[in-house]
């Protein structure tokens, strides 16, 4: 195996800085990986056809120091189709190991670790994580109350929840009428209120419906709200509802001690997911899902046709990931995640997240220091305020100098500056803010002229 | 853009031979791609943030000549998240173009082309293609008969159909009791018989159930059966059933004129899929799905939250692929398929498939030439025959000289030698056959001793 030494962090004005896509380091390592794979193809006939290993062979052997892109190259180069353990013991065991590592980094309770009876799997997307957990509890519930009651099942979330939940609910065959996005308010920081949840559940029960699933979010897309996991799980538990915690973009940040409290209460949930492909230095697709009760997934999703019979599966000592996900075939996604974890380690990954949080705070500081932009009162009334922001965003994006997006939160049109991209630095924030200032000032002039 | 000339085909004893993974060519092109991407990262700030193009900008510009691995490297290197047109016009338009190209290569009727009102999309797996088409027709049907009838919907297929259909039916919330794998027989070459289908439908209607979906297969996994598409579509049409044609591994071969007849009758189907990642020189994941009526998909799968509002979508002139698939985010999979098509062209792709078919015929010829292996009568009775084959397979795989699998077809235990791998040549078939002969002879000796 190639031994790639990493050399892509620098000291700069603001302290230690990880440069995960330094172009010269990328070039050096990329060429080494190409040679590694070319040698592999050249000598492919010397490798055995059949896995020669026993379950649990891998934990004692893992090490390495190369990252995401190289992981994807290996994934493509090997083209492993690891639907079950026997098809690729390495792909299966590496994934289980990496998911336990990550669970430890996030301080997830041991009930989510393989070693504690739970376990993790890498899905393609949060949609898949939603769909599979919805299917798991739907089948469990219907086996008790009868399939004819499928149209009585209810799914809860807040009105800030990502719309992919609604899509997954649709695909799972649950009635769109029984999808309950509960209203949140600015005074509650757009968090889902446990008492509102309880009220919704009681009303549904009175109407003869069956509460099934609750999605709590750590870091909503539009409003960055963090739902209070502990109290929400308490309510859900009373009514036998499956709780999924979706921390799609924010989850990765919880490896930092100062942000871990956002996950407080996750011990009461049934499943938890975050997307390493968002803020964790991996590329699409890499959604990490943990469940406390893998049998809920495998009971609903397993298929064991004759053609896949094998002694490893019969031994019940191995994980067959095809029964933890939607499809049967699966890419060896654990490779890239493993390489990211090995290459950077928890300290550098924390530095990376903390660096972005500093950039976000810097942009907040810039905004607060601008008298005009900091006070909405420069715009005559609320309606004009939204109109102003809409025009401002269009003007900024049309300039080509930056690309920003918007959200409507509590009726207010908000412009977003996302600072989670790998290449982002202070100078980019400064440049983006200058752009906002210039376009806002130009627009304000036209406003006051009218 | 890099200009990579291809140089990986050779003349050999059996004529022209494409070597899609020649290690030295891989090395040369891989290094060029690394430099291309390193230069891209080095100069990333000179590129505009925002797409500057109008819908349909791409058809006039496509060209290139590099293949799958390089496509995956580009896909990872750019990490495009093209859920809708505006997020990545290039990813969207290239996918539409490539799917129309492929539709033409397969001579699919124009009703499956974008230009004919249909269209194609790249999914991760056949499971996803099943699930999305099932969801499409399920929602359409329930909007007519009412959601409370979900447990009455019936899905038909043959007992040879790939088990991923059963899994998709489970996930879609359709009752497992209403999954109808219709029995096939050896005398029918394991094809699904149209009259058996009709009988099953009539029985279900009499029981008050609702026929919904039929899956026909071109090339079943265990028995390589090809269902008679025309007559099956005729029966389905009478009862308003959605017909999906699954040609997972065999579909690619239908670009050859001599195999195209396997798709005869596909014009009566509603959707068609094949996996380019099986026998079409791309790696996981690349399932190509075409539908005649994209609105059936988009009506069931679309989500249009405020945050994704954009003028392109509002114009209704663009494809938003998030509404054609399970998840929202999607990898730029079209790149690798586009590079494969451009690099090899239809002639070389046909040569590639035809080369494998010749290898399969060669192994058939070797088998027929062996008096013992060619006549099952050397084994006392049917039961022993299955037992013999089971022991033979175990002995072959344990030797490490080859990796074969098995299927039970019509009660008979069959050993498979799959010859679709990229590196397969005549010498591998000869070696594998010698291995089978040696192990069979050794095993026969122990049999006759008892």
UniProtKB/TrEMBL annotation, chains A, B:
GO CC terms of this entry: cytoplasm
Annotated positions of the N6-(pyridoxal phosphate)lysine modification: 278
Transmembrane segments: 404-424
Pfam families: Pyridoxal_deC
Cofactor(s) essential for the protein: pyridoxal 5'-phosphate
Keywords: Decarboxylase, Lyase, Membrane, Pyridoxal phosphate, Transmembrane, Transmembrane helix
One annotated GO molecular function: L-tryptophan decarboxylase activity
Protein's GO biological process: amino acid metabolic process; carboxylic acid metabolic process
Family listed: Belongs to the group II decarboxylase family.
PANTHER family: GROUP II PYRIDOXAL-5-PHOSPHATE DECARBOXYLASE, TYROSINE DECARBOXYLASE
Name of this protein: Tyrosine decarboxylase
Lineage: Eukaryota, Viridiplantae, Streptophyta, Embryophyta, Tracheophyta
């Amino acid at each position: 195996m190639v031994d790639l030494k990493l050399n892509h962090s620098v000291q700069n004005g603001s302290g230690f800085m990880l440069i995960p896509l330094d172009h010269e380091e990328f070039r050096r390592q990329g060429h080494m990986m190409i040679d590694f794979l070319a040698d592999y193809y050249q000598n492919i006939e010397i490798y055995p056809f059949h896995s020669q290993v026993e379950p649990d062979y891998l934990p004692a052997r893992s090490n390495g120091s190369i990252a995401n892109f190289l992981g994807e190259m290996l994934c493509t180069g090997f083209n492993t189709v690891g639907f079950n353990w026997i098809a690729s013991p390495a792909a299966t065991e590496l994934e289980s190991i990496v998911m336990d590592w990550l669970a430890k980094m996030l301080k997830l309770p041991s009930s989510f670790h393989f070693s504690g009876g739970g376990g993790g799997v890498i899905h393609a997307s949060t949609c898949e994580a939603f769909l599979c957990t919805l299917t798991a509890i739907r089948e469990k519930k219907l086996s008790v109350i009868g399939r004819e009651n499928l149209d009585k099942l209810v799914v809860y979330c807040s009105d800030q929840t990502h719309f992919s939940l609604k899509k997954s609910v649709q695909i799972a065959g649950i009635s769109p009428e029984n999808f309950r996005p509960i209203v949140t308010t600015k005074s509650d920081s757009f968090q889902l209120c446990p008492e509102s949840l309880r009220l919704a559940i009681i009303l549904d029960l009175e109407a003869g419906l069956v509460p099934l699933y609750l999605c709590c979010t750590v870091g909503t897309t539009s409003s960055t709200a963090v739902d209070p996991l502990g109290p929400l799980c308490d309510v859900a538990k009373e009514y036998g509802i499956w709780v999924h915690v979706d921390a799609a973009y924010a989850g990765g940040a919880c490896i930092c001690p100062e942000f871990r409290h956002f996950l407080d209460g996750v011990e009461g949930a049934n499943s938890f997911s975050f997307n390493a492909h968002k803020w964790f230095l991996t590329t699409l697709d890499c959604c990490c899902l943990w469940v406390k009760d893998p049998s809920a997934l495998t009971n609903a999703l397993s298929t064991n046709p004759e053609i896949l019979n094998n002694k490893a599966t019969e031994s019940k000592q191995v994980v067959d990931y095809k029964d933890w996900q939607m499809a049967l075939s699966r890419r060896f996604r654990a490779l890239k995640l493993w390489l990211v974890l090995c290459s950077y380690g928890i300290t550098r990954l924390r530095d990376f997240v903390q660096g972005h949080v500093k950039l976000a705070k810097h942009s907040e500081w810039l905004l607060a220091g601008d008298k005009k932009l900091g006070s909405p009162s420069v715009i005559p009334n609320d309606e004009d305020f939204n109109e102003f922001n809409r025009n401002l965003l269009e003007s900024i994006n049309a300039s080509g100098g930056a690309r920003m997006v918007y959200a409507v939160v509590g009726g207010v049109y908000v412009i977003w500056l996302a600072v989670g991209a790998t290449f982002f630095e202070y100078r980019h924030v400064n440049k983006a803010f200058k752009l906002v200032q210039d376009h806002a000032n130009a627009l304000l002039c036209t406003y006051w002229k009218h």
